Amino acid sequence: MGSAARLYLVAEVLQFLVFKQMGVPFVVTVVLTIALIWLYTRKGGIRTIIWTDTLQTLFMLVAVGLTVVLLGQKLGWSLGEVITQVSESPLSRVFFFDDPKPGTYFWKQFLGGMFIAIAMTGLDQDMMQKNLSCRNIREAQKNMVSFSLVLVFVNLVFLALGAMLFMYAEQFGVAMPPKPDQLYPMLATDGSLPVIVGLLFILGIIAAAYSSADSALTALTTSVCVDVLEIEKRPEAERVPLRLRVHVIISVVMVVLILLFKAWNDDSVIKTVFRVAGYTYGPLLGLFAFGMLTRFAVKDRLVPIVAVLSPVITYVLDLYSVQLFAGYKFGFELLLVNGAITMLGLLLIRRK
């Protein structure tokens, strides 16, 4: 669902910039996007994923870095002034301690963000399949440490770019679009910025989404084949056709999810991605925590029921949180609530 949300953003931008003028329906844009990913992930496997992700990440970072530089030039700032202006902007405020009820409260953001990072980059097959492809445990450990350090720097650059886009719009009197997601493509393609920014934007956003979606497609295919269908127990002749069918089905599911996002989503995509993560990663976090912190065995057949009921109960609590908890609104800490409910459910179905 998270990858579908990110791909939805890319499909929307491509539709807006290219395919709409050609009279191509949105559904065709989505199918073509998924079909391209399906083709190269089917052909090359994990080696292709690693190489394409490396190149796509390079494109994405170059696009972001050059856009920051070009925006700074338009605003008349040197690199040092960019850092100063962004750090002094209200958009860079991190510490909100005045009221614990809103979602912006610091400890909600800190704890929720910390566990979202643990779940999305430490527990997900999407990320772990790359570590599993390392030659040995030492290389996998180096990969995790270097990845974590680089991620801090990359996130800071992205946040700086976001702040600069809003500051640019304010300084030059640019009318804000209905959704914050649309500000970057609008500025990149309406002539406000050099043409190179528009090209870099398109390359960067496609690279970002493709590097996420291709990993998700292969990870989901692997999970379904290995964990659900137990492909390793089947005859050799059945394995390749079965994996191919699963790969196609996962791709179709991705298309359907993107179209559902198109029909229902009325919020910024990044907020939607993290809200979705609060529901989809909660059971994963609860399962891992239960396995690491306790020595109980559970009734395996009941685990999927717990994993489905937990997000449903979490959604109901979120829906009525204001009435139930004296005006309290859940933020990203919803993931922790979801994980705790999963752990409680697992305790209830433990074996004697």
Can you tell me about this structure?
Helices cover 76% and strands 0% of the residues. The protein is mainly alpha-helical and 352 residues long. It folds into 2 domains: 2-266, no CATH class; 281-352, no CATH class.
Strand content: under 5%
The helix/strand series, from N terminus to C terminus, equals HHHHHHHHHHHHHH
Straight-line N-to-C gap: 36 Å
Task: State the share of residues found in helices, binned by percent.
Answer: over 70%
The major β-sheet equals: none
What's the oligomerization state? single chain
The general outline is: globular
How many domains? The number is 2
Unreliable stretches (pLDDT < 50, length at least 5) are: none
| Tally of DSSP β-strands | 0
* Number of DSSP helical runs: 14
The mean pLDDT is: 83
User: Which class best fits the helix and strand makeup?
Assistant: mainly alpha
Radius of gyration from CA coordinates: 22 Å
Give a short overview.
This protein is mainly α.
List keywords for this structure.
mainly alpha; 76% helix
Furnish the topology, listing elements before pairings.
Blueprint: H1 2-19, H2 26-74, H3 79-88, H4 106-122, H5 125-132, H6 137-171, H7 183-189, H8 195-228, H9 236-264, H10 269-280, H11 282-293, H12 303-319, H13 321-324, H14 334-348
Helix pairs in contact: 1-2, 1-8, 1-9, 1-10, 2-6, 2-8, 2-9, 5-8, 7-8, 8-9, 10-14, 11-14, 12-14
